[in-house]
Every structure is written in structure tokens, then in C-alpha cells.
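Batch manifest, entry 17 of 40.
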Amino acid sequence: MFDRRFVLAALALVVVPLSGCKIVQIAEEEAAVPAGFDASGYAEGIWSSQALPYFSESARPVTEVIPAIVADLEGAGTSYGYRAGEGSPWSFVVNGTGEVTAKNTESRAGTLEVAVDGLAEPVVVQIGPVIRGNGVRDALPFVSFKDFVNQIEYANAGKALTALAYQAIGTNAEAVAVGDTVTFTGAIAVSRPGDALMVTPVSLEVAP
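Output type: C-alpha cells
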């Protein structure tokens, strides 16, 4: 015959640990997991309403900005640029018009060389399909790292904005030929004096 005291003690050992557990329904667990960041949705949400108007309103003539950068990056940054904080690259929003003197598409990171009156050297304009850097994101003062959960979200937002910029210029970039006159608006990002200066365009128009 079993000792009732033994049985009660055994039950206590089983029940006590369970009293410290929390049973959560599967639906509640799934609801507690935050949804993944929709970088494309984020970029599309600000592109037409904020990003393009900012580029249009803030652009300065490339004929002013590039010589200023070459002469004194910090001074140019103070006069024409923006950066998120100390140590971040300077970003400059520029526009210009000139004749295409070269179209470089051997690499997927394609470029145009555009001769702009008033500049000794052609302006290099990225035409992709591979666009280097995060010039578009970094030029926008309302896109701040502190608004994202982590570096991955911030990087993905940059990629999505760059993708929209390429989408905006891709068809014209394919059609443009040496000798054409183009008008462009975009961003130049510069980390240190002597960096190669390239425009990441958000618009690229070919003269008829």
C-alpha cells in the first residue's frame, strides 16, 4: 500500500515548478514579434512627398559646389553641404547641365562624364545599374540613423532610396549617348579631401 504522504510530496514537486511558468497562446507569441522593417515601403513613403522636393529646392549649381569642395572641403560643407554628425561624410545637393563626353558601361557601375561650362574637368554622374554609396540617403536631413532600430534597417533604407533614384533615371540613362546634352540633379558625398567626386542623380533629363 502506498504511503499517502509520499504521493502528496511527489505531486508537490511536479506542481511547484509549473507555478512559475507562464503559458502563452501561439497567437500572442506571434503578435509579440515585431514585423520586419519594410525598407521599400519606407522609401516610397517619403520619395515623392519629401525626397524629390528637397532635392529640387536645395540643389546648388555644380559649377559653384565642386570648386568649393576642391578648395576647402570643410568650408564648402559649411556653405553648401549637410552631414549627420562629426565624422559623417559631407553631402552636397547639386544640379547642372552639360554635354556627355563619355559613357562608361564596361562595368555595371556605369557612369557618364558630363562637360559643364565653367568646370575644368567633366562631372562624373553615376548611371548604374550598380550605384555606389548612399549619397541619396545621406543628403536627406530628415532620414536619421536615430529613427531606425539598428544599422541594418538604416542601410536597407539607403539601398531602397538608391533603388528609387535609379528607377527614376534608368530609362534616360540607357538612352543617352555621347554628344547629348543632359540636365541632372543629385547628391555628392565626400568623406575627405581628395575623394573622387561623383554625382548620384535623382533626375537625369536628355535634351531633345
